[in-house]
Amino acid sequence: MIDFMEHNIYLDNNATTRLSEEVLEAMLPYFCNNYGNASSRFYKIGRDAQDAVAEARSKVASCLGAKPNEIYFTGSGCEADNWALKGIAFANKGKGNHIITSSIEHHAVLNTCKWLEKQGFDVTYLPVDSEGRVSPESVESAINENTVLISIMTVNNEIGTIQPIKEISEIAKSHKILFHTDAVQAVGHMPVNVSELGVDLLSLSGHKFHGPKGVGALYIRNGVKIDNLIHGGGQERGKRAATENVAYIVGLAKALEIACRDLDKNTKWCSRLQKKLIDGIEERIPYCILNGPRENRSSSNVNFSFRYIEGESILMLLDMNGIAASSGSACASGSLDPSHVLLAIGLPHEIAHGSLRLSVSNETTEEDIDYVLEVLPQIVQRLRDMSPLYEKIAHGKE
Which residues are catalytic? Predict the structure, then answer.
């Protein structure tokens, strides 16, 4: 085994990304020098802050193909998801109480839907196929006269499946139903244009594309009626109370501007590393399963299940060798239950428990991947050598 902490390799970019120096530089003036309240318009330092927020809103809108007044800044992607679902549900409760989503959504959507069920709403959780894809036909079949909202994520955070959002949005539109997509894992990593996708609401989060944590945004198409999630002052045009987090808003916009500028280059690089990882793991480690599709997959995401071992043991040994990875969603890392996503695509509990997510970024190097492909097979073999189940396989008893 490689010496302890000889390396420092970060492969959990689907959980969060490193704040880029260029983004930090853009943010710094708004902490100590340009520290005005963006809602204080009667003196210069306040107007400067207001102008910075307006410029950031325009940048985000431009990257998404939206209008600036359709962008609302939030405290996170989770908040944006909560606002979209709760806000639309309660704004339309006179029309109906039915919501459609998928069984593999992020917990920001799933747990919000469970809460809405307690408030009297009816939620349909659609199944997915073995690659984690939602069938547009299943969406249409689930629609009834009380359906007021459909919410399907653009890219799954655990297995990287890209959903047929445009097709689903066309179905929603034909039935005059509002459509929301959680695009937290998509924005900054693939082309996302709200007009081309045809969505009514879209959530994003700054820290997924080298921006700061603690800031997100919700796109709300002009004309869509939505209740407030946070009540108080008149910030965000009366839709989302709280003093504007100017530095973080500026940081989110700068990070997204850079991500969109470098999108083609970064996607090609990540796709190259992704292929190297997938091919290398399959060549070096027997009894492994690639979770999610080979095609139509986020370029940053690799997810494998390794039979006869347990995922948390892999993570601990990877960490001892200077490699940061995860077994699935960071938001569920404290749970001992297997991933709801892996169970939904048909993996049995014992195989789902042996999962590993490796997620790259434009900052990942080929040398990083080479090192992982050197260390990971040793770790898997070490753990299997301690497994009575694998011992039976190794001796041909199963």
Answer: 331
Cα–Cα distances in angstroms (integers) from residue 337 to residues 80, 293, 311, 318, 323, in the given order: 26, 23, 11, 21, 23
Please give the helix or strand (H or E) that residue 181 lies within, else none: strand 178-182
The region, left, alpha or beta by phi > 0 then psi within -120 to 50, assigned to residue 328 is left
DSSP string, 24-53: HHHHTHHHHTS---TT--SSHHHHHHHHHH
Q: What is the pLDDT of residue 328?
A: 65
Q: What is the pLDDT of residue 4?
A: 46
Within 13 Å of residue 20, how many CA atoms lie on the same side as its CB? 20
Domains and their CATH numbers in the chain? 9-18+263-394 (3.90.1150.10), 21-261 (3.40.640.10)
> pTM to 2 decimals?
0.95
Average pLDDT, the chain: 94
Residue 11 tokens read as: 């492969």
DSSP designation for 274 = H
